[in-house]
Structures are given as structure tokens and as C-alpha cells.
Write a structure and sequence with these properties.
two-stranded antiparallel ribbon, binds arginine
Length: 462
């Protein structure tokens, strides 16, 4: 029996019916469906559509169904077409005839939109907490790194020395934007669609503003036609999840490189690595590779969902049922990836000697050029002078620290005895001036600011 069988004189073709059944996955909306229905029953009662006895019977029946489903999630199953049909069937089994009045003035079109909005608003804070936990792991690494130095890279070639702490706080900064984007996705979903009916609105005097407040929404949708097929909030969530996965993927890529034999900047904990079935020496960064790989899935869900939406005529279309698996999969992928990345980062150890060694040498060229600029030379000219010096040092296999004062002077008369002091990684980072720079004092303040942010999210760190 379906919710619509009265219209038809035969039962549906099994293959066609099975193809449309969504209960296998939309059972994840069980709790939200019941919550929404309880509020709807109360609204029908307040509008005088249900007698107070009917309303009470329905609400009590739904509460019992919710409790049973929470206690034993396995009981949320059956031959039903979808979770909405399941809940209605259970209700009628429990309270009889009154249960058949629940769907008055309501359509599954708005109901499913409501359920998914409630679901996202309930679940997004969990993802935000996962993101904050990873920010905390980055902050802890930044703290532990102290004043350790490492090279920064552009084009994956050594660029300028930075503090290791600055590097970890860079990833924390990106993750905090993800946190904000997840909040924006919750704000997208923050509108009550009930009262829209199937498409034209409902003909019962439902106090939608009150119903919105009752369900935790700050507003009611503006237009019933738009509401029946608006899934922008799904696209918004998939976008937020995709950008977060892109950030995790880039962090993973960095660490795959930095923990490899050629760099050796960090050591992966044995617990975060896997071995090879054939090569006994291997220590592979599988969790990081999987995070990088899974980013493709989430991006696929986003582009797939936009492709589903783009051809839809106005109003509800069954294509929209595809929204749920996209949301559930993106949520699970992001959650698992955040946890795995946090596990890797929190056990990562720094090889400060190797990072310091890699942060010295010719990557101090910009600082040497700045030295000349401080003594009056135009920067473009200084760039040429130091470029020529670098060319010479490269052919001789030396670096700045090996130059005698006479050799410095050969390159430019402006070089004085103090130049070796400028051409060190520590002097380089200390020479930075802006708050977003790698200047140690600025990094200390950035770390403190990050700790403040984490505390505001309810996180205690190191
Ligand atoms: N399972 C459907 C979905 O996810 C519920 C809405 C059904 N509405 C309808 N008119 N068939 O979209």
C-alpha cells in the first residue's frame, strides 16, 4: 500500500516501484520526519483542523514512534516507499483513524525539504566540531614547533624561510574558513518550507511564523513554487564540504611530500602508516592518500548535484530525491577524512634539524637583496646583483655563508661586515613586519588568537 494507491487500479510494476523507493537511505531522516510531523500536528490543532483529542493522540503516537526508533534503529524499516510513508503507517497502526488526518494540508514535497533542512541543521555542528578538532591539532603542532624554521615553497621550489608554526597555522586558517562555510550552509537551510503544500500553498490557516519558531527556523520561505524544488541549501552544503575536502587534500599532499625520504621534515607515526606486502622497508602514508583520493568523490557529488538541478522545470520533480545520498555521502566522507587527518597530524613529529638545514642557503637571496635596498639601491637593481651572485655560488657549489667580505664587495660596494648576520634564516623571519607574516612575534600572536577561537568553540588545547 502506498500513500497514493487510490488513484490506480493495478499495483505498480515491481521493478519501477523498487527503482523509486528511497526508504533504504532516507531512513536517516526518521528523527527529523517525526519532529516535523509533531510540529505539523500541533499547527493543525492550533488552526482548528484537528480536534484537541485528535491532536493529542497524534502527537503522543509520534512521540512513542520516535522513542522506539531511537531505542532500536533497526525497527525503522519495512516495505514502505519512503520514511514519510513509514512514519504514517506506524502512526495509523498505533492511534488508528486519527493518524489518517496528519497529512491534511501537507505534501511530501515540502515535508522532504523540511526533513533535509532539519537534518542538516542538526548534523552540521558535528562537522564543525570535527573541523575545530583538526584546527586544534594544527595549533598544538604550531605550539610544539616553537621557533623551529623550515623553507616555504612556491612552485614547489624553496622560496623563503618561515616558522614551522606559521606553516601549521596556514592550514588552520583555511580550516577556519571551512568552519564558517559550514555555518553558512546551515544558514542556507534556515527557512521553513511547510505551508507551501504541493506547490501552490496550503488552504488551512497555519501560523507558519509560529511553526518556524517552533522548529528552530528564523524565517519562512518566500514562495511556495520556489520552495517545492529549492535545494540551494543542498548545493551550499556540498560546496562547503567540497572546499573542506580540497583543503584536506592539499594538507595531505603536503605531508605526503614532507614525510617522504627526500624531504624528511616530519616523521609519520607508525600508527598513521601502513606497510608494503612486498617491500619490507616501506612506510606508506595511506590515510593521507585516501583523504586526497576521497576529495574527488565529494567534488563529484557537488558537480553531480548541480547537473541534476540544471534541467529541472519549476516545481517538485522526483529527480530531487537524489539530494539525500549526495548529502549523506559527503557528510560521511568529510567526517571520516577530518578524523583521519587529525589522527595523523596529532602524532606527527618534527625533524627540526632537517627543516632548519633546508631553510638556509640560497633561499635567503631576497633578504640579501633587501639589505641592498636598505642601503639605497633600487629593488630591481638589487635583484640583478643578487641574482648574479646566486648564479656564481651555484656554479661553485657554495652558499652565502661561505662568502668572504671581499667577495661580497665584489658583487656590490654596499655590502658591509654585517651582511652575514642578515643572511640567516632566523634574521630573515625576524625581518618581517606585517601581522600576517612569519615574524616570530606575529606568529605567537596568531597562535594566541587561534587558541582564543578554539576556546570560543569550546575547545581546550595544549
Ligand atoms: N522520496 C521523495 C524525495 O526524496 C519524497 C517526496 C516525494 N514527493 C512526490 N511528489 N513523489 O524527494
Amino acid at each position: 500500500m502506498t500513500l497514493w494507491s487510490g488513484r490506480f487500479d493495478t499495483s505498480p510494476d515491481p521493478a519501477a516501484f523498487e527503482f523509486g523507493v528511497s526508504f533504504g537511505f532516507d531512513r536517516a531522516l526518521f528523527e527529523d520526519d517525526v519532529t516535523g510531523s509533531i510540529a505539523w500536528a500541533e499547527a493543525l490543532g492550533a488552526a482548528g483542523v484537528l480536534s484537541s483529542d485528535e491532536m493529542r493522540a497524534i502527537v503522543e503516537g509520534l512521540r512513542a514512534i520516535l522513542e522506539e526508533g531511537r531505542r532500536d534503529p533497526a525497527c525503522v524499516s519495512g516495505p514502505d516507499e519512503d520514511v514519510h510513508s513509514f512514519v504514517e503507517r506506524k502512526l495509523v497502526e498505533r492511534v488508528g483513524e486519527a493518524g489518517r488526518r496528519l497529512h491534511t494540508g501537507r505534501s511530501r514535497n515540502e515535508q522532504v525539504s523540511l526533513d533535509l533542512r532539519l537534518y542538516l541543521r542538526r548534523r552540521l555542528p558535528r562537522l564543525q566540531a570535527d573541523v575545530a578538532a583538526l584546527v586544534a591539532a594544527c595549533a598544538d603542532q604550531a605550539e610544539r614547533a616553537g621557533d623551529a624554521l623550515m623553507p616555504s615553497y612556491t612552485h614547489l621550489r624553496r622560496a623563503q624561510p618561515v616558522l614551522v608554526a606559521h606553516y601549521f597555522l596556514a592550514h588552520a586558517a583555511a580550516l577556519r574558513r571551512d568552519h564558517a562555510r559550514l555555518a553558512a550552509a546551515a544558514a542556507d537551510a534556515d527557512a521553513l518550507p511547510l505551508g507551501s503544500g504541493a506547490i501552490a500553498g496550503t488552504s488551512y490557516a497555519i501560523d507558519t511564523a509560529r511553526l518556524a519558531t517552533r522548529l528552530g527556523f528564523s524565517r519562512v520561505v518566500a514562495n511556495s513554487i520556489d520552495a517545492s524544488s529549492d535545494r540551494d541549501f543542498v548545493a551550499g552544503f556540498l560546496y562547503a564540504a567540497s572546499v573542506a575536502m580540497v583543503h584536506l587534500s592539499r594538507l595531505a599532499e603536503d605531508l605526503i611530500i614532507f614525510t617522504g625520504e627526500e624531504y624528511g621534515f616530519f616523521e609519520l607515526a607508525d600508527a598513521s602508516a601502513t606497510g608494503s606486502s612486498m617491500m619490507p622497508q616501506k612506510k606508506n602514508p595511506d590515510p593521507l592518500e585516501l583523504v586526497r583520493g576521497k576529495a574527488g568523490r565529494t567534488i563529484g557529488r557537488l558537480t553531480g548535484w548541480l547537473a541534476t538541478l540544471k534541467g529541472l522545470p519549476s516545481g517538485y520533480n522526483k529527480d530531487l530525491q537524489e539530494d539525500k545520498e549526495a548529502v549523506f555521502e559527503a557528510e560521511a566522507t568529510l567526517h571520516d577524512s577530518l578524523l583521519a587527518t587529525q589522527a595523523v597530524i596529532s602524532r606527527l613529529s618534527l625533524n627540526a634539524e632537517r627543516t632548519a638545514r633546508a631553510a638556509s642557503g640560497l633561499l635567503l637571496a631576497t633578504d640579501v637583496a633587501d639589505y641592498l635596498v636598505a642601503r639605497g639601491m633600487p629593488f630591481r637593481r638589487a635583484h640583478e646583483v643578487v641574482g648574479a651572485l646566486v648564479r656564481r655560488l651555484l656554479t661553485e657549489g657554495r652558499d652565502f655563508s661561505a662568502l668572504t667580505l671581499a667577495e661580497w664587495r665584489e658583487a656590490s660596494e654596499l655590502f658591509g661586515e654585517d651582511v652575514p648576520r642578515v643572511a640567516t634564516a632566523l634574521a630573515s623571519v625576524e625581518a618581517r613586519r606585517t601581522p600576517q607574516s612569519t615574524r616570530p612575534e606575529a606568529v605567537r600572536q596568531a597562535l594566541e588568537e587561534c587558541r582564543g577561537w578554539l576556546a570560543a568553540q569550546g575547545f581546550a588545547t595544549l
